[in-house]
Amino acid sequence: MTDTATNNTASTPASASKATLDSVAKLACVSRQTVSNVMNSPALVKAETAERVHQAIKQLGYRPNLAAKRLRTGQSRLIGLRIVGVDGDAVFDRFLHALTDAAALRDYRIILYTSPTDAGEIAAFDELLDRWDIDGIVLTSTHRGDVRTDHLATKGIPCVTFGRPWDDSDHHSWVDVDGRAGTKAATETLIAAGHRRIGFLGWQPDSDVGNDREAGWREAMREANLDCCEPVRRDNTLDSARMGAREMLAPAVADSDLPVTDALTAVVCVSDVMALGMLAELAAQGRPTGISIVGFDNSTVAASNGLSSVDQPLVAVADHCARLLIDQIERPSGATAALERILLPPKFIPRASSRPPDQ
Fold this sequence. Notes:
Blueprint: E1 4-5, H1 21-28, H2 32-40, H3 47-60, H4 66-73, E2 78-82, H5 91-104, E3 109-113, H6 118-131, E4 136-139, H7 148-155, E5 159-162, E6 174-177, H8 179-192, E7 198-202, H9 208-223, E8 232-233, H10 238-254, E9 266-269, H11 272-284, E10 292-297, H12 300-304, E11 308-311, H13 314-329, E12 341-344, E13 347-349
Parallel strand pairs: 2-3, 2-4, 4-5, 5-6, 6-12, 7-8, 7-9, 9-10, 10-11
Antiparallel strand pairs: 1-3, 11-13
């Protein structure tokens, strides 16, 4: 396990040493008690008021006496997060940075740990509690049969998940991005541009997130009365994506006289990694602009390669995760935190990789 707390390297404003609770209250046009409530009992403050106070805290560089607060409240002000992700996939890194910022605005820090399995992560929870006395956990990579939230509930540890539950275990607050809506919007955009034969390059069928994104493509095709060709599913790596791309492109290579209505003219991909693999294979076959490609995640690599993609609002996801978790941590003794389920809409970002057919 990696016992590493993230380190904020931003310089402290010159006014930080002079900033007080009173100066924050004055700048935010609220009472001193309201500032205290925002930091200690955020559930008592309206969201718009809390945001104004957080902005004032950030502008002034106010830093409360955390050592005194820990003694008074018994809280470590540490939130645990497991390091996950695949090489070449920057979604987790972007989420980590956004969550670190969102937590810091509320005077919390993120402590990172690693584990290759859910069972290992559950063991890591106990170690974190023993060594660091963490206040709560943000879980990611939710899936069917996920027992991590149940384990934390039995321990009395607050948690929130980035990712919805995919079965009946909907007993905790969660935040997620509507992948189905994202791929549906991307597919509808391609259809509106004139595409009729649109493929889907997805993940293996045991991926709930991948299946959800595939469902959006199917829904758009069905509503347009268009036939869905059989999706190709591979692992989320460039090499695996290129293998999938070769499978999808094989009929067109074997029979260049296919009617336009039967030839594949566009592909919606479950991630930017898969889409970049598709682009690489098209370039290797000497037809880099022959088929429109859409990815998912709107990574910086996608943008630099002119790849159309579906953008996940990761800053908003992180902010909601931090808010929901800290509301649980700081709720008054005996009070029950309200459960919230937040499904955020993504946004399709068109670029050069998607165009009308025959262009």
